TrEMBL record:
GO molecular function list: acid phosphatase activity; metal ion binding
Purple acid phosphatase N-terminal domain ranges (all copies): 64-155
Family annotation (Pfam families): Metallophos, Metallophos_C, Pur_ac_phosph_N
Keywords on record: Glycoprotein, Hydrolase, Iron, Metal-binding, Signal, Zinc
Domain Calcineurin-like phosphoesterase span(s) in chain numbering: 166-364
Residue ranges occupied by any Purple acid phosphatase C-terminal domain in the UniProt entry: 390-449
Assigned protein family: Belongs to the metallophosphoesterase superfamily. Purple acid phosphatase family.
Gene3D superfamilies with a match to the protein in the record: 3.60.21.10, Purple acid phosphatase-like, N-terminal
InterPro entries according to UniProt: Calcineurin-like_PHP, Metallo-depent_PP-like, MPP_PAP, PAPs-like, PAPs_C, PAPs_N, Purple_acid_Pase-like_N
Swiss-Prot/TrEMBL catalytic activity: a phosphate monoester + H2O = an alcohol + phosphate
EC number: 3.1.3.2
Protein name from the UniProt record: Purple acid phosphatase
């Protein structure tokens, strides 16, 4: 009897145990994020051929091409204008002004070329124009003396905590037919990004024999239609490294560094691969996944000194860009960002970074607010935990390059992953004021008004509430 009772009790315990286990599994299932069920055509993304219209060389002898702009100082009153002249150096002057028929100002830049194996670049010009009025339309022209080409841009409003401003987000763009769809989709987006936050991997020229730098030129011509009219904020990715000792190219980042200038000195950085800018209500920190970031390195020391400088009463939103994501539940580039996370994540929590955008993985993913900073080798506390002081991590490496989509995900979806989908697309981060920003991800297959994923952000400094309780 006793034995039977015991046996019954044991059975009951087993049933209860199984039930509890089922509850845990059920609870895990309920708490997990969403893996989108969207079905797409899974073809490899093909690069556009060299004679594609988007790569067309502009008419006229020595006509400037590959025109692009970026922010030229720390607070948005300067612009770096860059372009390439193919036949001879020509003029490095930029003419500019507030009226299309009256370019009353001029600034002179510098010109140079570089060689890469058997390739010699065109004449690359960079010119910084300064002391611009905020929130103003400027027209500018390059190609003085030969084929003059005119463009325009709008400067950001003066920095302030409640200034509304809209950023676009693209990563890992490349120059495939899908890349073209992504850029077109971005241009048509009703939210109208005013500045592009680009999270690295530009041309994918390094996938061609001897890193054929002609594909850097085609990429410059392809993106001109956006980058000549609004600043693209650059982040260096692994496809910018171009380190090829077997053909004698041992200077990392040579094409990228020659073609894409950034205002790194204005933020006290000693390298173009990590720097910061203020723009409207945002403080944007760009980090380098492929430059040393360990303790005592220049990047570490710069970031350590940089974060305390961010004044949230001046720039309410703190945004970080990097190439290799820290939180990534795809089976591609898995844990490549881990060592940088170990170094810098405690600072991101301490200084309440609002959002981190990364690329590298050719898919889309958005995290919950989580951190993983408790682990100290001996305490076994090595799991990410919910943390309202932590950023949201967004992987937006789905620009559409020739390497195709990352479709293989870790299973089950980790709890910290709020939404993931392997489709090409872009995103918009739309700051409304110091407390609220609206974020949306747009997949290329949809009409441009469709948001495949979206979220209201509450600012971590001014209103650090749990967004999951926010009404959209
Ligand atoms: Fe990458």
């Amino acid at each position: 009897m006793k034995r039977s009772c015991s046996s019954n009790a044991l059975a009951a315990i087993r049933v209860a145990g199984a039930f509890a286990a089922a509850l845990v599994v059920f609870s895990d299932f309920c708490d997990a994020g969403k893996t989108s069920a969207f079905v797409r055509k899974d073809d490899k993304a093909l690069d556009m051929p060299l004679d594609s219209d988007v790569f067309r060389v502009p008419n006229g002898y020595n006509a400037p091409q590959q025109v692009h702009i970026t922010q030229g100082d720390h607070d948005g009153s300067a612009v770096i204008v860059s372009w390439v002249t193919p036949d001879e150096p020509g003029s490095s002057l930029v003419l500019y002004g507030a009226f299309v028929n009256n370019l009353t100002f001029s600034a002179k830049g510098k010109v140079h070329r570089y060689k890469f194996y058997n390739y010699t670049s065109g004449y690359i010009h960079h010119c910084t124009i300064r002391n611009l009025k905020y929130d103003s339309r400027y027209y500018y022209a390059v190609g003085v003396g030969h084929a003059l080409r005119m463009f325009w841009f709008t400067t950001p409003p003066k920095v302030g905590p409640d200034v509304p401003y809209t950023f676009g987000l693209i990563g890992d763009l490349g120059q495939s037919f899908d890349s073209n769809r992504t850029l077109t989709h971005y241009e048509l987006n009703m939210h109208k990004g005013k500045t592009m936050l680009f999270v690295g991997d530009l041309s994918y020229a390094d996938n061609y024999p001897n890193h054929d730098n002609v594909r850097w030129d085609t990429w410059g011509r392809f993106t001109e239609r956006s980058a000549a009219y609004q600043p693209w904020i650059w982040t260096a990715g692994n496809h910018e490294i171009d380190f090829v000792p077997e053909i004698g190219e041992t200077e990392p980042f040579k094409p990228y560094k020659n073609r894409y200038h950034v205002p790194y000195k204005a933020s006290g950085s000693t390298s173009p691969f990590w720097y910061s800018i203020k723009r409207a209500s945002a403080y944007i920190i760009v980090l380098a996944s492929y430059s040393a970031y360990g303790k005592y390195t220049p990047q570490y020391k710069w970031l350590e000194a940089e974060l305390p400088k961010v004044n949230r009463s001046e720039t309410s939103w703190l945004i970080v860009l990097m190439h290799s994501p820290w939180y990534n539940s795809y089976n591609y580039h898995y844990m490549e960002g881990e060592t940088m996370r170990v170094m810098y994540e405690p600072w991101f929590v301490k200084y309440k970074v609002d959002v981190v955008f990364a690329g590298h993985v050719h898919a889309y993913e958005r995290s919950e607010r989580i951190s993983n900073v408790a682990y100290n080798i001996v305490n076994m506390e090595c799991n990410p935990v919910p943390d309202q002081s932590a950023p949201v991590y967004i992987t937006i490496g789905d620009g559409g390059n020739q390497e195709g989509l990352a479709t293989n995900m870790t299973q089950p979806q980790p709890k910290y992953s709020a939404f993931r989908e392997a489709s090409f697309g872009h995103a918009i981060f739309d700051v409304k004021n110091r407390t609220h920003a609206y974020y949306a991800w747009h997949r290329n297959q949809d009409g441009y008004a469709v948001e495949a994923d979206s979220m209201w952000f509450y600012n971590r400094f001014w209103q650090p509430m749990d967004e999951s309780s926010a009404s959209v």
